[in-house]
C-alpha cells in the first residue's frame, strides 16, 4: 500500500469515526444543572402585597428546559420557615423514585436551611410538563414550566411553530394559604375560595386594580405559535379560549395526540396541553381577550371569576393607530358546569398510535381494581366545640372509603430498607368495602375509615383501574394524578360502571395517554398501565383541598429480576424526617 493510499484510508476511517461520534452525540443526552433557592418574596396583586414562597424570587418560578434523553440536576436549597419538597410532575422517574418529590411518599421534606439535589434522566418523553411544591399548599406559588424538546434533529409531528409560549394558569389568595388550610383542617370546614386566577402570575384586567398586571401576548400576522398550556391552579379545572381564534390541540400531558381544532380547551389541575395558534393573515384592527374561567361540578362554593390576558398583533403598516384605540373582542366560554362540553372535549383526545409514536396499550390485564373516589366525613375531634362540616362532622375525602393518613417517615425509605412496620400496611382494598348505588342516593353512613394503606404490584404487572365518582356529599369531577407512570384512558361514562357491559366499549387502539385524568362528575373512568417502574408511586386528586382531606393512596411496584429493573439506592443527601 502506498503512503498516499494509507493516508487516504486513515482520513476515511477518522472521518467515519467522527461521523459515528456525531450521530451518537446527536442522540446522547447532556447534563443540565439548575439551582433552586426557595425564598420569600414580596409580591403585589389585586392592590395588596404579601410575602409568598418562591423559587429564586420568581413568580411563577424558572422554566426547566431539557431535551429527551438529558439528565437534569436541580439543587434545591430551603431558605424559608416551611418544610419544602419539589415534584417534577409527569416525569416518569424511571428507577429514580428518590427524585419524584412528594413529601413523606418518596422523601422526607427539605427542612429550613437544608438542601437536596434532585437527579433524574428524561427518558422517552418530550413535550410540556411542570414542576411544583409537593407539601401542604405551597404549590400555590411554587411552580414553573418543564419544556422537554425532542432529540436534536427530530421534528415535531406537526408544523414547526414560529414561536413557543408557556401559558401557566394559577390561583391567587389575598390571605396566607398555609394558615388558611391549617385552620380548615382543624375546624373540619372547607377553606376559603381563591380571590383570582392568574395567567403567568398575572390576574388580568377583569379584576379590580389589575389592568397593569395583564399578560400581553404579542403576535405577528400569518404565523403559527405553539402555546404550552399548564394548569397549576390549586383547586379548579379551567376552560380556556382566545376570542375569534381557533386552536389546534397537538399534545396532552407531554404525549402527542391526533390534532383536532377547537375554540375552547378544558384543562384540569395537573394537566398540560399544547395547542397551535394560527394568527390571522392580515392585521385585524382589533385586540383579543385570552381568557380562562372554572369548570366546577361539586356542591361547594368556588371562585367564579375570569382571568385574562390580551392578544395583540404587531402593527407594522399603521404605527400611528394605538393599540388602546382598537376594539377588544371577548371569547365565549361555557357555563361553569358544562359537563357536556367537558365530555365531548375529553373524547376527542386520541393517541397518534403510529409507527413513530405507538400507543402501547396493555391488551391483557393481570390485576383489576375498582376504586370509588369522592368525599365523606370524619367525626368531630374538637372537644367542647362544633365542627364546620355537614352534621357537625369534619369534611374528608377517600379512595375506596380509605382516607389516606400521611406517614411521618417516607414510604419509599420504609419500603427500600424493609422497615414498613408501623409506617404502612399493604391491605389497600381492591374494591369498595361495600356496594351501593354510587351515583344515586348516598348511603346513610358517610363516615370514612383512615389509614396508611398501599397496593403492592409485582414488576411488569398489567393493571386496569376503574375509578368511580360517588354522590356522597355531592358528585364532582376529580382530576386523578398518578406519579411514575403514564396510563391509557381506555373508557369513561356516566352513572355506575358496569363490569359486564362497559369493557366491550373500551378503546384499546388509540386511547389518550396521560398522567392526570378527570373522573367524570357522577361517572367513571377506566385506565390501563404497565407497572414497569420500581418504587413507591403516589396517586391523588389534583384538587389540593381533596388531597388535604385524604383523597390519595400509593402503589408499591416491586423490583424486577434484572439489574436494570431495580430501584437504585437512595442518594447520600436524601433528607431526614
UniProtKB/TrEMBL annotation:
Its main location: secreted. Gene3D superfamilies: Cupredoxins - blue copper proteins. One of its GO terms (molecular function) is metal ion binding. Binds 4 Cu cations per monomer. Residues 1-25 form the signal peptide. SUPFAM superfamilies: Cupredoxins (SSF49503). Its EC number is 1.10.3.2. The keyword Methyltransferase does not apply. PANTHER family: LACCASE-4, MULTI-COPPER OXIDASE. This is Laccase. InterPro entries: Cu-oxidase-like_N (IPR011707), Cu-oxidase_2nd (IPR001117), Cu-oxidase_C (IPR011706), Cu-oxidase_fam (IPR045087), Cu_oxidase_CS (IPR033138), Cu_oxidase_Cu_BS (IPR002355), Cupredoxin (IPR008972), CuRO_1_LCC (IPR034288). Pfam families: Cu-oxidase, Cu-oxidase_2, Cu-oxidase_3. Lignin degradation and detoxification of lignin-derived products. Its cofactor is Cu cation. GO terms for cellular component: apoplast. Keywords: Apoplast, Copper, Glycoprotein, Lignin degradation, Metal-binding, Oxidoreductase, Repeat, Secreted, Signal. It is found in: Secreted, Extracellular space, Apoplast. Belongs to the multicopper oxidase family.
Amino acid at each position: 500500500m502506498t503512503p498516499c493510499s494509507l493516508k487516504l484510508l486513515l482520513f476515511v476511517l477518522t472521518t467515519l469515526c467522527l461521523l459515528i461520534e456525531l450521530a451518537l452525540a446527536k442522540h446522547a443526552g447532556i447534563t443540565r444543572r439548575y439551582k433552586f433557592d426557595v425564598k420569600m418574596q414580596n409580591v403585589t396583586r389585586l392592590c395588596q402585597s404579601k410575602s409568598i414562597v418562591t423559587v429564586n424570587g420568581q413568580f411563577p418560578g424558572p422554566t426547566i428546559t431539557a431535551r429527551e434523553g438529558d439528565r437534569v440536576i436541580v439543587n434545591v436549597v430551603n431558605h424559608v420557615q416551611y418544610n419544602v419538597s419539589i415534584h417534577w410532575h409527569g416525569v416518569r422517574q424511571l428507577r429514580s423514585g428518590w427524585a419524584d418529590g412528594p413529601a413523606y411518599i418518596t422523601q422526607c421534606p427539605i427542612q429550613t436551611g437544608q438542601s437536596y439535589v434532585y437527579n433524574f434522566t428524561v427518558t422517552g418523553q418530550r413535550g410540556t410538563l411542570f414542576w411544583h411544591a409537593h407539601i401542604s399548599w405551597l404549590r400555590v406559588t411554587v411552580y414553573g414550566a418543564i419544556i422537554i424538546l425532542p432529540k436534536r434533529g427530530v421534528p415535531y409531528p406537526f408544523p414547526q411553530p414560529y414561536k413557543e409560549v408557556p401559558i401557566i394558569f394559577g390561583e391567587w389568595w389575598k390571605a396566607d394559604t398555609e394558615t388558611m388550610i391549617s385552620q380548615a383542617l382543624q375546624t373540619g370546614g372547607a377553606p376559603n375560595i381563591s380571590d383570582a386566577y392568574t395567567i403567568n402570575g398575572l390576574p388580568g384586567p377583569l379584576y379590580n386594580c389589575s389592568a397593569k398586571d395583564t399578560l400581553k401576548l404579542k403576535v405577528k400576522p400569518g404565523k403559527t405559535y405553539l402555546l404550552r398550556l399548564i394548569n397549576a391552579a390549586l383547586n379548579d379545572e379551567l376552560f380556556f379560549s382566545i376570542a375569534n381564534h381557533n386552536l389546534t390541540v397537538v399534545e396532552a400531558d407531554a404525549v402527542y395526540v391526533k390534532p383536532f381544532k377547537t375554540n375552547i380547551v378544558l384543562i384540569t389541575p395537573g394537566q398540560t396541553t399544547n395547542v397551535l395558534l394560527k394568527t390571522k393573515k392580515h392585521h385585524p384592527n382589533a385586540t383579543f381577550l385570552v381568557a380562562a374561567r372554572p369548570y366546577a361540578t361539586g356542591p361547594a362554593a368556588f371562585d367564579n371569576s375570569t382571568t385574562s390576558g390580551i392578544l395583540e398583533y404587531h402593527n407594522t403598516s399603521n404605527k400611528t393607530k394605538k393599540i388602546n384605540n382598537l376594539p377588544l373582542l371577548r371569547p365565549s366560554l361555557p357555563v361553569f358546569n358544562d359537563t357536556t362540553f367537558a365530555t365531548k372535549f375529553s373524547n376527542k383526545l386520541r393517541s397518534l398510535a403510529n409507527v413513530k409514536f405507538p400507543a402501547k396499550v396493555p391488551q391483557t390485564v393481570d390485576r383489576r381494581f375498582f376504586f370509588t373516589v369522592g368525599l365523606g366525613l370524619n367525626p368531630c375531634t374538637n372537644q367542647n366545640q362544633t365542627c364546620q362540616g355537614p352534621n357537625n362532622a369534619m369534611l374528608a375525602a377517600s379512595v375506596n372509603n380509605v382516607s389516606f393518613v400521611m406517614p411521618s417517615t417516607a414510604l419509599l425509605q420504609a419500603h427500600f430498607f424493609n422497615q414498613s412496620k408501623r409506617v404502612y400496611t399493604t391491605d389497600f382494598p381492591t374494591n369498595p368495602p361495600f356496594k351501593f348505588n354510587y351515583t344515586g342516593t348516598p348511603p346513610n353512613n358517610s363516615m370514612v375509615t383512615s389509614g396508611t394503606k398501599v397496593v403492592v404490584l409485582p414488576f411488569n404487572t398489567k393493571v386496569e383501574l376503574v375509578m368511580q365518582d360517588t354522590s356522597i356529599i355531592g358528585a364532582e369531577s376529580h382530576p386523578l394524578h398518578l406519579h411514575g407512570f403514564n396510563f391509557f384512558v381506555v373508557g369513561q361514562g356516566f352513572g355506575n360502571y358496569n363490569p359486564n357491559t362497559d369493557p366491550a366499549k373500551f378503546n384499546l387502539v388509540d386511547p389518550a395517554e396521560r398522567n392526570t385524568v378527570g373522573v367524570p362528575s357522577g361517572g367513571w373512568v377506566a385506565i390501563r398501565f404497565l407497572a414497569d417502574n420500581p418504587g413507591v408511586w403516589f396517586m391523588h386528586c389534583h384538587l389540593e383541598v381533596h388531597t388535604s382531606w385524604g383523597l390519595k393512596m400509593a402503589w408499591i411496584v416491586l423490583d424486577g429480576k434484572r439489574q436494570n429493573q431495580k430501584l437504585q439506592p437512595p442518594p447520600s443527601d436524601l433528607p431526614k424526617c
